[in-house]
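As a warm-up, study this chain.
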Amino acid sequence: MIAIQEFFSPKAEKSRMLLLLIACIAILLAFWSRFPRDAASIDLPAIGVEGYFNTGWEIDSAGGFVWVLNDKNKFIIANNENVRKSGQLDIQIVGAPCGGSHEVTIASKFSSPERVTVSSNQKSAVQIPLTLDPYARVPVFVNVTGKGCRPSATDARLIKVQVRQPIFILQ
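Now compare it with the structure written out below.
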């Protein structure tokens, strides 16, 4: 009991302050060592196009694409600058190599919905006009109706259409 009372006495104030200083320096060094010294930085593009689909992105000789399996898919168009931008989002859609036709609806709250119907291996292009406020992130939803099909005996996915990596073209 006497040792605790001595710790809180005015005589021990210098010791407490020294312990507090040591603890703060230890915490600072612990956080400082977690950050890399020569971290590389990258510049964000003026307009970014992010894809959020229910399957992973694949690559072929024509570029990146994703297979649509259900209706919970979207692109987010990100304006990474402090300037309003106008342009159009160009999306290429290709019908599945198996199965029948599918209706694709591409909608954003900033433009009227676009609908296209694609049959097996048919290609179609959709242009969505958009105006992006500074630092805005605008979602563009991709919904597909119709039954999916299995492209091969080894692939259990029920694919509907293929969506190629879209491009936002500034006006």
